[in-house]
Write a structure and sequence with these properties.
The protein has about 110 residues and is an alpha+beta fold. The chain has four helices and four strands; from the N terminus they run E-H-E-E-H-H-E-H. About 15% of the residues are buried.
């Protein structure tokens, strides 16, 4: 199942370190099958608050996402971003093919 790394970058600002991070991150993703699917767009907030922007990277599965994040190559450059941009990062699974929200709701109702 496809998994994702999502970073909510609260204070996206450019700095030489951030540019170095951007130049080097692709090489850290390749061994784990990671690929950017969203990378820092202007966001349109419809509910709540969302300062900053978002980055989403897809991986073949959650194990690959974890292995990338924990890899020495990524850990070596991570501080180049986090020293200059406040934010949060999470890893999570996507949905299985054919996911149906109504069926999910029915199953949850049946459990309660």
């Amino acid at each position: 199942m496809t998994a994702y790394a999502l970073a909510h970058l609260h204070t996206p600002t450019m700095h030489d370190d951030v540019l170095t991070y951007l130049e080097r991150i692709g090489a850290t993703l390749a061994p784990f099958g990671g690929a950017f699917i969203v990378h820092g767009p202007q966001v349109e907030v419809r509910e709540g608050e969302w300062p900053g922007t978002v980055v989403i990277i897809a991986f073949p599965d959650l194990d690959a996402a974890r292995a990338w994040y924990d890899s020495p190559a990524y850990q070596e450059i991570l501080h180049l971003r986090t020293d200059h941009i406040a934010g949060s990062a999470i890893l999570f699974d996507g949905v299985r093919e054919g996911h149906d929200a109504a069926k999910m709701a029915a199953a949850i109702r049946a459990e309660h």
